Every structure is written in structure tokens, then in C-alpha cells.
């Protein structure tokens, strides 16, 4: 399923308002209970990854598989092959797990015997384009009601809703702390696709640049001050156009 909708409006540098038309592919998955049958889903997802390479792709629901043993509580059969298959398809498709909050396990067998079993079978994944566009998106796993699966709620990126962006002012590059600050962040090892890695590092730099701007006072404030000096100099020149000192002052400002 592919969706197209107007995400938000924001003013660009020219004062014009832009409507952002975003294409999103949403896949609701269900993995078969048997490992062999589940491989049909894995093959389909790898084919979909090629088709969705240039758009934002979100996939979620019941994969009937876990990615590691920490997602299992209780007595379970040998699931090593199932885990290997699931991790392989995540790597082959370039999908990234979204951050999760709430209940740790998403499925319970509701057994009345000592063979109680909990697993995290439900997941939400996103491709690198989606993570770059919505780096703060996450989902919450709620307490299950009548179903043996827990409901999940996806929360959008509020930063993007309010027009969040990466701001860099050229004058910061002249500061002696600029290069060390960037080097300190850039040497961190972040696991993920190249786009995801760059996005996370730029996000880490935002508060550093914000603090540097604060220390140097805001650029817009400096521009307003310079504009005021220029207007004052122009008034002096207009009042005495033959005064060489006033003319030089105007050019300096």
C-alpha cells in the first residue's frame, strides 16, 4: 500500500510557503507459524525493498519471529534458524528497527500451565529514507486485552511537524572550537546505514552549534545591529554629503 499526502507547510528562505508532498509505502506483515512457510514473506520483503528504495517505507505487525533470545521468556523450541532468517532479511532489506516503548513482549500464549511463553513477535521497521526524514519516530506497545498480541501505536516525529531542520551558520566555522567539536562527534561509531549514521551525527551536533551561537549571540541580532549602524551612517552622509569621514564610515559599515 502506498500513500501520498501533504505532510506540513513551512516558509523557505525566500518567505514562500511550501506544501511538502510525501510518498510513503506502508506494509502490514504476517509471518507464517512454520519457518519454511515464513520464507515466502522474507522473499517478498526483499523484493519490496528494491521497489521502495526511493521512497519512505514503513513495515510492521506480526512477523512470528524474534531477532535475539532476549525477546523470549519461557520454554521455547529451537528458534535459532528462525532468528537467523529474520536477521538476514532485516540486513538484506536495509530496514532499521524503530525505537520501542511500553511492554517488552508483544505475544503471550495464555497458557494455564507452567509452560507460559512470552515473545516479542511484533515489530515496526523503517528504511533509511524514513529514518532520515523522521529520526524521532517510535512506537509504543500497549497492554494486551482480549488478543494474545499487544496493540502497537506509532508516534510521529514532532520535530518535523514543527518544521525542525538542521541549521548551520557559516560564521561558526571561524571559531577555534568548531573543528574539535565536529571531530568529537564524527569519530563516534554508529551502527546502521550511511544515511542513518550521518543523520544521527548531525542531530548530535545541533545542540553544540546552538550553544556556540548563543555564546556569540544570535546571528539575526548581529544583523539587526549592523543594519542599524548602516542606517545611522547613511543619515550622517545624507546630512553632510561632502564630509569625507562620514562617507568612509558608510563604506566600512
UniProtKB/TrEMBL annotation:
InterPro entries in the cross-refs: Endo/exonu/phosph_ase_sf
Protein origin, superkingdom: Eukaryota
Protein name: Uncharacterized protein LOC105179321
Species, as recorded: Sesamum indicum
Amino acid at each position: 500500500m502506498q500513500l501520498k499526502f501533504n505532510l506540513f507547510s513551512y516558509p523557505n528562505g525566500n518567505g514562500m510557503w511550501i506544501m511538502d508532498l510525501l510518498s510513503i509505502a506502508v506494509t502490514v506483515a504476517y509471518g507464517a507459524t512454520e519457518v519454511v512457510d515464513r520464507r515466502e514473506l522474507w522473499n517478498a520483503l526483499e523484493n519490496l525493498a528494491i521497489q521502495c528504495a526511493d521512497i519512505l517505507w514503513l513495515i510492521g505487525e506480526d512477523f512470528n519471529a524474534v531477532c535475539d533470545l532476549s525477546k523470549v521468556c519461557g520454554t521455547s523450541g529451537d528458534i535459532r534458524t528462525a532468528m537467523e532468517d529474520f536477521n538476514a532479511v532485516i540486513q538484506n532489506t536495509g530496514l532499521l528497527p524503530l525505537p520501542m516503548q511500553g511492554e517488552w513482549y508483544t505475544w503471550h500464549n495464555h497458557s494455564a500451565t507452567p509452560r507460559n511463553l512470552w515473545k516479542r513477535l511484533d515489530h515496526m521497521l523503517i528504511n533509511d529514507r524514513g529514518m532520515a526524514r523522521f529520526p524521532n519516530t517510535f512506537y509504543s506497545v500497549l497492554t494486551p486485552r482480549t488478543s494474545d498480541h499487544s496493540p502497537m501505536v506509532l508516534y510521529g516525529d514532532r520535530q518535523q511537524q514543527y518544521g525542525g531542520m538542521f541549521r548551520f551558520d557559516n560564521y561558526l566555522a571561524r571559531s577555534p572550537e568548531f573543528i574539535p567539536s565536529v571531530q568529537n562527534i564524527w569519530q563516534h561509531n554508529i551502527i546502521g546505514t550511511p544515511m542513518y549514521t550521518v543523520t544521527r551525527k548531525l542531530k548530535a551536533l545541533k545542540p553544540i552549534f546552538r550553544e556556540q551561537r548563543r555564546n556569540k549571540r544570535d546571528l539575526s541580532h548581529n544583523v539587526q545591529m549592523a543594519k542599524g549602524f548602516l542606517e545611522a551612517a547613511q543619515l550622517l552622509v545624507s546630512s553632510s554629503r561632502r564630509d569625507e569621514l562620514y562617507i568612509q564610515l558608510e563604506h566600512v559599515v
